[in-house]
Amino acid sequence: MPKPKTLIILMLLLLLAALSFITYRFNRGTQEKVYDEAEAPGGASVKRGVKPEPDAEAVVLEVESGGVSYGRVVIELYPNVAPQMVARFKRLVQEGFYNGTTFHRVNPRAGVVQGGDPNSKDEDPSNDGLGGSTYEDVPAEFSDIPFDRGIVGAARAQDINSANSQFYITLRRVPQWDTQYTVFGKVIDGMSNADAIAGAPKRPENPESPAEKIVIKRATLEPRASFK
Fold this sequence. Notes:
Elements: H1 4-29, E1 46-47, E2 57-65, E3 68-77, H2 83-94, E4 105-107, E5 112-115, E6 142-143, E7 151-154, E8 167-170, E9 183-189, H3 191-198, E10 202-203, E11 206-210, E12 215-223
Parallel strand pairs: 1-6
Antiparallel strand pairs: 2-3, 2-12, 3-9, 4-5, 5-8, 7-8, 7-9, 10-11
């Protein structure tokens, strides 16, 4: 027959095991509400375990250069992941903000094409990448969605809460950007066109700047259901 001290130890071990199981079940049940500040810059929270849910509307970018079409790039949006950035992007599209802006940064080695700067409408490429809309900046909305091929992220300055109008499309897996930038959408049609944009000739003085403007002729909102 076990001694009283041994029984107490066994009871404590059983209690600890039960508490561990309860904690595990609780964490699984609330996975979508877990935030972790350890891995994001500036102590920003990271939304974890949330499955992206596409918005009812997608953004269609019609792109051209020198009168030659690059085709369209279709982006589905994730308001349950980054509601503020999605709302900003849709608002600017509705206002025609992106019409006439360019993909001012194209770098296949870095795995990115970037656009959305109103400065890119002028003839001075040196100020491209420095502009934004007249609206206030959007705070960071980091998540654990990986920056795989086709992910659309919010471009920002060093300040994590400085996203505004600029966005970028990842051409390949870029793990160093995970939990560092806001993911708010994904290209669902036209990634081959994004690849073509990235492969455009560059300026000799700037290997990321296209030699000829690659223009977003028109950006529109279309029903997401219209695309597979």
